[in-house]
Amino acid sequence: MATILFFGKLSDVSGALTVDLPQDVRSGAALKKWLGGRDAALQAALEQAGVSMAVNQQMALGDVAISNDDEIAFMSALSGG
Amino acid sequence: MECFSITVSDSPFEPERAHADFRAAALGAGAIVAFTGLVRPDENVSSLTLSHYEGFTQSQIKNISEQARARWELSGLCIIHRVGNMVVGEPIVFVASASAHRRDAFEAADFVMDYLKSEAPFWKSETRGDMAHWVEPSARDIDDKNRWRS
Question: Which residues of B touch A9 (CB under 8 A)?
Answer without folding.
Answer: 123, 134
